[in-house]
Amino acid sequence: MTWYVMDDYPTYERAREAFEWSFPERYNPATDCLGKHADPDDRLALVDAATDERYTYRELDEASGRLANALADRGIEPGDRVGVAAPQRPETPVAHAACWKLGAVTVPMTTLFGRDALAYRLADSGARAVVFDPTVRGDVAAASADADLAVAVALDARPWYVGERDPPETGEAFDCEVVDYETLVAGHSPAREPYDATPSTDTAIMYTSGSTGPPKGVRHGHALWLGRAAAAYNFFEGRLGAGAVCWTPADWAWGSALGGLLLGTWHYGGTVVAAPTKGFDPEAAFTLLEAYDVTEALAPPTALRMLMNEEPGAYDLSLRTVATAGEPLTPEILAWADENFADLSVNEYYGQTELNLVVANASRWFETKPGSMGKPLPGYEVAVLDPETRTELPAGEVGETAVTPADDRVVFSEFWNRPEATAEKRHGEWYLTGDLASRDEEGYLWFESRADDVIITSGYRVGPLEVERVLLDHPAVEQAGVVGVPDETRGEVIKAFVEATPDADPGDDLRADLRERARDRLAEYEYPREVEFVDALPKTSTGKIRRVELRERERDRDD
Fold first, then answer.
1. Overall number of domains in the chain
2. At what angle do helices 91-102 and 57-73 cross, to 10 degrees?
3. CA 144 to chain CA centroid, nearest Å
4. Which of 87, 166, 304, 557 gets the most CB atoms within 10 Å of its CB?
5. Interatomic CA distance for residues 128 and 151, integer angstroms
């Protein structure tokens, strides 16, 4: 009998009472998400919208076996870290599954990253190999100078579903062996006995931004994917089995897209549509939804607000559920869905890279309250704690959201090489989120704000320090302070307040140069869309930029 992590429950109360994390003693996600569905041969796992090619579970399982054997021949061993810097294309999940068959640990990275962001993650994780898309070839080559890579695996150039991409650069020097993917796997057997793993075996290091210091590597065990699959089953209303066709515009480097959508769907045996995009195009999104009969979608509120500018009635859609996260779901999106779709559920969820997906507005279980985060998912206890005393607050009072899983294996094990940061995330049985919220009398949670300075723009988390450091490297910049400011479409946009050096010309040319500099070196979503030059930035007595005062200035202007 095929095993699944989550059963169907008729009511929220029954789910909270009856569900428990009951993991198998031995567990490898490559077997769970591909191998267990490999027979019959015709079960469809993936449709590539860029080429219209289709892949069965068996084909992907065999492809991951070939790559696993090829990487093993290059010296990759259990515990080694392997970067995966590739978009929505078949080789991306194949690379993850191949590593897990080896017992290696993957480091998911988006092709939106610039050179500095890729280099930092490869070096900090100690990656021994990287599988990369040609669109980031030059950046990976440059990053190899400071990383400990033994081999870099170059994927072939291919069409993109939406948007133009710069042609891959050629002739870059790598400080490691570089080999084409097809050359690497040629002649290798698809048969590979998966590494004898458990739910606690290391699976991935995913990087998350904070308000201080560089991005932190979040170390997870294989149970991470089971936690994501359980959550996905609930916010997709139990519809992820055979017959489900699932898609997200989000890059598969992100935890929700990789774990909740891709691997969550494959855990239950559904089909995923791969459609790499440079930017979100509402018309193209509706065209894809229609062309591939997508039944379940995952999209951030920013994307949903962009879809509101199109006419859904012009398309013959099969959409049943939409899951959304990354920023609060605003009431007008729910109103739009009610007005334009006969029977579409829009379910919001809340989670973190460290703590899995822990809260949801699950409309099949209880009434959705617009603006609310929802209620805790089965398998988690969620409380609102006083930030000072760490005691639980009564309904209506704002405090820090804290999470206790019924099984610690579904949340992170530690921040990679950051024991102090790991300790700060925990208080007794509680994992601290750094998010402020309140709980009402009916048990719904209501997001208030971040407790730190992290910016959430279009669903992405951006640490202001990363952006400030890039700006400060510019010879015309004396000081820089970065904050998030409200935006109707993206929730927040990044704004930089800059003190220019005395001999600089703080005008449009410098403004454009700073924006492009951040875009090139970090990620396309991390550049400051607004740059304001100021005579002096507010500072503490120790010389730190007071970002809170910068945010207050913006609020005063809006008022």
1. 2
2. 60
3. 24
4. 87
5. 7
Could you tell me the strand order of the sheet in which 491-500 lies?
477-487, 491-500, 530-533
Given a contact cutoff of 8 angstroms between Cβ atoms, the answer to whether 27 and 198 are in contact is yes
- 3 state DSSP class of 392: strand
Whether 448 maps to a domain, the answer reads no
Residues whose CB is less than 8 angstroms from the CB of residue 14 and which lie 6 or more positions away in sequence, other chains included: none
pLDDT means over runs of 10, the chain (559 residues): 86 94 96 88 92 96 98 98 97 98 97 90 97 94 94 92 69 89 97 97 91 84 97 91 94 94 97 90 94 95 86 94 83 88 90 92 84 92 92 91 96 95 93 91 85 75 79 86 85 89 89 89 86 83 67 74
Q: Is 239:321 a contact under the CB 8 Å cutoff?
A: yes
What pTM, to 2 d.p., does this model score?
Answer: 0.85
What are phi and psi for residue 472, nearest 5 degrees? -70, -20
CA–CA distance, 103 with 89 (Å, rounded to integer) = 23
Rounded Cα distance, 437 and 445, in Å: 7
Q: How many CB atoms lie under 10 A from the CB of residue 538?
A: 16
Q: Does 472 lie in the same domain as 433?
A: no
Instruction: Provide DSSP, 506-557.
Output: -SHHHHHHHHHHHHHHSBTTSS-SEEEE-S---B-TTS-B-HHHHHHHHHHH
Residue 32 identity (one-letter amino acid): D
Q: Which two tokens stand for residue 337?
A: 């869905």
Instruction: Identify the sign of the CA torsion 89, 92, 94, 95.
Output: positive
Length of the chain: 559
Phi–psi pair at 155, nearest 5 degrees: -75, 160
